[in-house]
Amino acid sequence: MNGTSHRSETRQPTSLQEILGKMSESGDFQAVILASKDGLPVATEPADYDSEIAAAAVALLRKVSSEAQQQVGLAALDEVTIRSSDHVRLACRYLDVGEQGLILVALVPPGHHYRRATSRAIRQIRQLLA
User: Fold this and answer.
1) Given 3.90.190.20, 3.30.720.10, 3.20.20.140, 3.30.450.30, which CATH number is that of 3-129?
2) Is the C-alpha dihedral spanning 113, 75, 128, 11 positive or negative?
């Protein structure tokens, strides 16, 4: 491996779109959305993905999960995941950057893992927006 190739692999992404693109590629996700806690899309991968409905569903999930958390007395939520009968998952990871609450959403095909890719993306998003 030459030095140039190694540097490009460790180079930090410079945009949210780049972070989501790398995350989507590494996890082979159908779609990735970064949304505000209110459900407004911030960035999507693919860039032309219609994220309005998904982001609205994510905001609703956040509201319901927050209420459940309070009623049951759980610690702060890290993730909410919905799995369909065909084993596709909608994985929602919560993150705070300063005062801003964000939700990272991945549409995960059956049999695929998402935690490592989403955790890496969360670290990169925090670094980029800090």
Assistant:
1) 3.30.450.30
2) negative
